Protein 1
Amino acid sequence: MSMNVGDYLLQRLREWDVDHVFGYSGDGINGLMASWVDADDPPRFIEARHEEMAAFEAVGYAKFSGRVGVCAATSGPGAVHLLNGLYDAKLDHVPVVAIIGQTNRTAIGGSYQQELDLHSLYKDVASDYVHTVSAPEQLPNVLDRAMRTAMSAHAPTAIIVPADVQELEYSPPQHAFKMVPSSLGVEFPTTIVDEDALSRAADVLNSGSKLAILVGQGARDARREIEELAERRGAGVAKALLGKDVLPDDLPYVTGAIGLLGTRPSYEMMMDCDTLLIVGSSFPYSQFLPEFDQARAVQIDADAGRIGMRYPTEVNLVGDATATLRALLPYVEQNSNSTWRNGIEQNIESWWATMESEAMVEADPVNPMRIFWELSSRLPDDAIMSADSGSAANWYARHLRFRGNMRGSLSGTLATMGPGVPYAIGAKFAHPDRPAIALVGDGAMQMNGLAELITIKKYYEEWSDPRLIVAVLHNNDLNQVTWEMRAMAGSPKFLETQNLPDVDYALWAKSLGFSARTVTDPAELGEAWDVALAADRPTVLDVHCDPNLPPIPPHATLDEMKSAATALLKGDADRWDVIKQGFKTKAQEFLPNR
Ligand SMILES: Cc1ncc(C[n+]2csc(CCOP(=O)(O)OP(=O)(O)O)c2C)c(N)n1
C-alpha cells in the first residue's frame, strides 16, 4: 500500500516509540494532520491552547518521563509561538523534537503568506540540529537524526516539512549516489574515567573532614551512590533547583535548595566546608559556593564542555554520574569524625522548625508559605510537582519536603513565566497514574494557566488518576518582581506594572466542571488540600494570599536589605504591611525554636 510523507512521518515516530505529539493545527501541517485522521495511535495528537503551551507540555513530558518530547506547529505564527518553550528545553537541557510546517516549496522565497525564514528563526534555539525535508527520501534520515541528536545533546532539535512535501508519495532512500539511508535507535556508552583520575579525585575528597556535596539534575539516577558517599565521608548534600528530586529531604544530611531560592543550612555548609564535590550540576552562582581558595574540589559531569567552570575544581571527571560514583567509591575512605555531619544535621533540624514557624506567621489573609507547608506533609509519595516562575518558585524550593519517588521541576534556567500548568499536563501524559500538582502565581495563571485549564478539561477523563491540582497564589501582584525591584533596585512598587486585575479563578474552574475552592482563611488550607487530593477530577485552589511577605533568601545581603528599606521609604504603597510582615517572618529565624 502506498503511503505519503505525512503517513510515513507518523509511522516513523511510532517506530521511535513516540506516544504523544503536543501541538496545534494550521495549514502548514495540514498534510500531516490528514495522515493522522487515518493513522492508529500512537502517536496521539494532544492539542494545547497555544503552541508555546504545546512546547512546554513536551518539555514537561520529557522532564518527567526521561524520554524525548515531541511538539508540532504550523509554519509562520505557529513556529514563532513554539519558541519560548523550546528555549526552556534548550536552557534546561531537555530533549525535544519540534516538527514544523512551511509554505509549499513553490512559494518559498516569495514572501508568501505565513512564510518565515525558519532556518534563521530556529538557528539558535535548535542549534544542534534543524533541517528542512524537501524530498521524501530525505525524511527518515532527517527525523532520525533529529531524535538522536535531541537525546545525545539533551537539546531541542527541529525538522521543517513544507506543506506540499507532506502530501508527496513517500519513497525510501535508494542504494544510490546522493541518497542517505537511515536507521532507528541509539545506544549510548557508559563513560567512566580511568583509575588514575579516580584515585586523584578520591585523594582530594579524602583530604578533608568537612565535605559538602552539590547535586543537580545530572545526578538523578545516582541516588544510592550519593547516599553511600555522603554516609562514608560524613558529608551534607545540597540540591540545585533542578535536582530537588534527586535526593529526598527526609535524609538527615540533605540541606535542601541552594542559591537565591536556597536554605540557610546549604549556605552555611558551603561557607564552612573544606572539600566540595559537584555532581551533575551547572549551578551558576559561585557566590553561594565556598570561597575560591577555601575548598579542594572535584566535579563529575557527563559533558566535558560544561565541567570545571563553576568552581576552581582540582579534578574534573567526565562521565555518567552513577557509573563514575560507583567506580570512585572503592577509593573513598571512611571518615570517622562525625563533628561536621552532626553540625549539619542540627542546622537542618532547626531550619525545618524555622520554616514551619515562618509558614505559620499570620498574614492578610493567607501566608503563601503555609500553602506549601500544609501541602508538604500531605504529599503522596508518587506526586509530581511543577512550580511557575514567581514567588511560588521560592516556596517550592524552600518549603516542600520531598519524600519517596516524588518528582518536581520548573523552568530552572530560562526562568520563564507560564510553564507551571503545561508542565503538569505533560506530567499527566507521562504518568497518567500519578497525581500532578502545579503551584502557580496569578500572573502566570492569567498569562497561560487559565487557557490551559481547557486542555485539562479535554483530556482528564482519560487519565487513570484524574488528579491534577492547580494551586493559584492569588495576590493580585507580580510579586517576585515587586520584591526584586525593592531589594535590588531600591525602587518602590510601581502599581501600573505590578498590580494585577482581580480574577475569580475558582469560578472559572467550576465552569469547566472541576472541583474548585476559594481559600481566604489559613485554617482551611489543610482540609482544602485533603479534599483536592481525594477528588475524582482536577481541582483549582484559589488561595488569596498576602503579597507582603518577602521571598527574601535566608542570607539576604545587607545591600539588599538596605535597598528594600530605601524602596519602602520612597513611598511604597504597601510599606506598612511589608514592614510588619517582613519583620514577623524574619524574626522566626531568631526565636528559640531554632
Ligand atoms: C515570560 C516572562 N515574563 C516576565 C518575567 C519576569 N517575571 C518573573 S516572576 C514575575 C512575576 C510573576 O507573578 P505571578 O505569576 O503573579 O507570581 P507571584 O510572584 O506574584 O507569586 C515576572 C513578571 C518572566 N520571568 N517570564
Protein 2
Amino acid sequence: MIVLVRVFINGYGNIGRRLASALAVDKEIQLVGVAKYSIDDKVKEALENRYDVYAPKEAIGSFKEKGYNVTGSIEEAVERSDLVLDAAKEGVGYDNKKNFYEPMNKPAIFQGGEERNGERAVADMIHNSRVNYDKAAGKTYVIQGSCNVSGMGRVMQPLIQKFGDRIRRFDIELVRRWADLEDTKAVKDSIEWDRNPHHQDDVKDFIPNANLYVDAFKVPSRMMHLHQMFVRFGDGVVPTKDEIIECFRNEFGVAIINSAKGTGDVRKKALELGFPHGDTNMVHIHEDILRVQDDTVKIAYSDDQTGMVIPENHLLIQSMIFRRSREEALKRADNLFQMSKRRAILEEEFR
Ligand SMILES: NC(=O)c1ccc[n+]([C@@H]2O[C@H](COP(=O)([O-])OP(=O)(O)OC[C@H]3O[C@@H](n4cnc5c(N)ncnc54)[C@H](OP(=O)(O)O)[C@@H]3O)[C@@H](O)[C@H]2O)c1
C-alpha cells in the first residue's frame, strides 16, 4: 500500500514552480497545493496546472475579485500538510517557520537562501545528498543547500573520498549568473563581487574539514553558474586527468562533456531537447578544459542554477520523511527525473 505524504509548497517562484511539477507526478506524494502572494500571471499558470492555490487570508478576497479561485489560506494549507517545502524568497522562510510551521508542529524543508547560523537560523543542518543524506533522517527542519553549494559538495566529496589527505586545499572561483531565465529583473552590465560569499561556510557545514576558499563574482548572464575549482595536492603526486574523470563516471547528477563553448550552449541544449523547464538538474564537468598543472588540478563545471536543487529536495524528503537508504532514494530520484538518461543524452550531444 502506498502511504501518501501531503506536501504544501510555500512559494511559487523559480524553485517552487519546479518543485511543484516534479512532486505532482510522484505517486507517493499528495500535493496539497502551492502558495501565491502576488496576484499575477503565475496564479493563472498554477491553476491551469491544476494545483490548488493558497494565499494569505487577508488577500483571498482580492484574488477572488480578479477571478482566481483560491482554495484557502496559507494557515489552512500548512494545517493540511505533513511536510512544507518552503520556497519563499530569501530570508522569509524564518518568518514562515515562526508564524506557521512551529506553532502547527509541521516539519519543513527550507531553501539555500535561508540562514543556518545566527538569530534567523531556520535549521541546524544543510543537506547535501552526496555527503550527509543519512543525517537528515527524522529531522524536523533542514535547509537544502543552494545550487552552488549543492554543486560544490557533489564535486568535492568524490575527490575527498578518492584522494583524502593528499588534497591540501580547494579554491573555487564562482562565476554566478545575474538572473534566472524567468526573472523579469534587468541584467546589469557589470561584474560584481561578493564581499562575503556564504558558500564557503555553507559547504563547511557538511564537509567541516575541507580547506576551502570561495570567491564569487556575478556576471551579466542568465545561463547557469560556472565554478573554476583549483584542487592543490600536497604530496608531490598529482592525479592524472583520467584519474580525475574516473572519479565522476558513475556519480549521480554529474555529466562529463567536451564540446560546449559556454554555459549558454548547455542551457540552450536542455531547452532544445525539451527537458522540463529547460533544466538539466545537474553539474557538467567540462573535460576539454580540465587541466593538471604542477601541484594543481583545475576543474571547471557548470551548475544548473534552477535545476540542481530539485532532485536534491526530493532526496531530502526520502531521508527526512521516508527514512530510506540513500541507494533506494537515488533510484527513485533517477526514475522521477530521468537523470541517467538525460546525462547520457548530454554526454552524447557534447561528445
Ligand atoms: N533561483 C535559483 O536559481 C535558486 C537556486 C537554488 C536555491 N534558491 C533558493 O530558493 C529560494 C527561492 O528562490 P526563487 O529563485 O524561487 O525565488 P523567487 O523566484 O523570487 O520566488 C520567491 C517566491 O516567494 C514567494 N513569497 C513571497 N512572500 C512569501 C512568503 N511570506 N512565504 C512564502 N513565499 C513567499 C513569492 O510569491 P509571489 O510570486 O506570489 O509574490 C515568490 O513566488 C531562495 O531561498 C533561493 O535562495 C534559488
